Each structure stands twice: as C-alpha cells, then as structure tokens.
Amino acid sequence: MAKLSQDDLLAQFEEMTLIELSEFVKAFEDKFDVTAAAAVAVAGPGAPAAAEAAEEQDEFDVILEGAGDKKIQVIKVVRELTSLGLKEAKDLVDGTPKPVLEKVAKEAAEKAAESLKAAGASVTVK
C-alpha cells in the first residue's frame, strides 16, 4: 500500500462531510486508543479573567435535543441550515442530542433555534 503524504490526507478530509469526518475521528480513536480532545490548561491565578471571557461569549452552538413528532420537517430545516445531504441530516436527527451548528454568532444561533423549534424540534443554544 502506498504511503499518503499529509497533503494527500488533507485533500481527502476536505472532501468529507462533517458527519463522515466525525465518524472517522471516532474510528481513529478506537483503533489507536487515543482521544482527539483538545488539551485543557490548568486554571491558576488567571481564573477570574477566564470567567469574564465566558460572560462575553460571542460564539454559540445550536444543539438538537430531539426531533419531536415532525421528524421530516426537522430534517428539512437541518438541511437548510447546514450543507448536509439527506442521509447525513437524517443521521444527525436520529442521533440526537447532536450539534447542528457550532461556533456561530448569537443572531444566527437564535434564528436557527427558532427555525428548528418551529419545525417541532427541541433545541438548546449554548
């Protein structure tokens, strides 16, 4: 088997959807018994500054908690909000709770949450 360069690997990852990439990371973690979680710095004397930064949050995540009775409508809204295909959107809705949008502006997060709630989904904005 030919060895792939970093550029070749990155080109392959660029073609993947977020769901496919997430599944790859899980498989990688299982295969090599590692975690891809970001390192967390130990909070020392600067902890109050970190608390102030948390209060001024400018990036929000929209998390789908459940699809409710109108699952098809929720899948349609998820597809509108993301660039996911039908299968990926259905998998996301079936696998709740899952983030629909990550690190978006407050206005975009609120608008997305309203759209999902209007379709019958239960949503959390963090």
List keywords for this structure.
52% helix, 126 residues, alpha+beta, 6 helices, single chain
The spatial strand order of the largest sheet comes to 2-1-3
> Total strand count, please?
3
Major sheet summary line: 3 strands, antiparallel
The first-to-last residue Cα distance is 44 Å
Please tally the helical runs, counting DSSP H or I stretches of 4 or more residues.
6
| Global mean pLDDT | 80
- Following the backbone from N to C, one meets helices and strands in this order, namely HHHEHHEHE
Going by helix content, strand content and strand pairing, the class is alpha+beta
Level of helix content?
Answer: 40-55%
Describe this protein's structure:
With 126 residues, this protein is α+β, with helices and mostly antiparallel strands. The protein is 52% helix and 14% strand. A 3-stranded antiparallel β-sheet has the order 2-1-3, with helices on one face.
